[in-house]
């Protein structure tokens, strides 16, 4: 096989895709050659079909004549009496042969119950068994038309039973077989084909012209891409679908599902895929029936009872309805990813705050030392160490390291914002809660950050209390801010509910979803002039049975 050949892509073609040397004819040349081969094959098929048709027509006409003649012969009194007697009768043979000439048949044979010939065109064969093996049906009382080889050759024969007394329904006493030898069928077929030859040539010429025109139109429709390039693009397309973590389905303008990715096939109902979208995903079909296939992002729907987020991208252009592509992902996975991003953002903020605070302290210490005030620098350093020790002392009984690290970072963040951040004395949490550290960090981190934002850059205080008893864990985040606006309070834990503008209101909804999934509750209240958010979680033993999948998310 020759090496891969590089060709210059035509207008609209995508470069970089090799084409094998055997395909240098291009799509148009290959289509024309393929069309010629198809026409040649079709010509052979037509010849075979014409031959079969002529054979069938000849057999049908001859069979009708044969069965009609046999019926008439079987009704003759002489034939009925001779078949019932079962012996030779020269008068019977003479009369039957006379009828054969009038019917223009090649033979009329009369046989008795044992299948022995009582009448035959060749006298020497009288008394011998009838040949062809097709006497079973007529001797059983049924008429039959068959093609079989007898003593005179291959023939179309019509066989009729001879009834005792000439009355159908009685006893069968013999059989009448009228036959016509097959003519020179191949000669007739050759004549028919010669008469059709000019039409075949005309069809070939018109087909070639049509193939050239179709190839040009097809090449324009597929952006002048060659088959090898299309194959490469389809392979890339399949690889992209397989690599996506989201499920993808494509639906045409008639609502038929035309494509599903592997991940979508796993999520959709099991069994052979239905032809239409409605039985496959009723919720999506109902939603698009109301809104139309317009571009949509993060639409909350359910798939087999599970909440998912759906993106819809319409197909077609210039206002044409060409179907759509829908991608979807599990809502729990999206929330888990959002939590991870929130954690990462929080850690970045904490590190930035710590960096600023330590830089400020180092600058103060450096300035005092440069001014020759080492004693005052020492007092500042001792005060900082004492404050850190006091804060760590407050957290000594909170035995979830990630939660302690979060609170330490929030303290640095509060100092940067000028907020008095405290952890209530007596806060404690046993090591058993480490398995649910993700939920605890998410809840405390979001509620604390919301409390910072609630102060609106004004001086204030935020206090976190963490406690544990036999009924579970209790977390309170209290701030001195103005509280939740009444317009938002009624839908506070709904996604997108926020007084801070577009694109907000997702963190608190995520906390609420995770707390509910663990069998807990999240609520808020006003305690005097302070706003309090409370999180109550059942004991760890109950949590391990309640919702382990969400904790792994």
TrEMBL record:
GO terms for cellular component: plasma membrane. One of its GO terms (biological process) is phosphorelay signal transduction system. It is an enzyme of class 2 (transferase). It is found in: Cell membrane. Residues 353-541 form the Histidine kinase domain. The lineage of its organism: Bacteria, Thermotogati, Deinococcota, Deinococci, Deinococcales. InterPro entries: 2C_sensor_his_kinase (IPR050980), HATPase_C_sf (IPR036890), HATPase_dom (IPR003594), His_kinase_dom (IPR005467), PAS-like_dom_sf (IPR035965), sCache_3 (IPR033463), Sensor-like_sf (IPR029151), Sig_transdc_His_kin-like_C (IPR004358). It comes from Deinococcus phoenicis. This is histidine kinase. SMART domains: HATPase_c (SM00387).
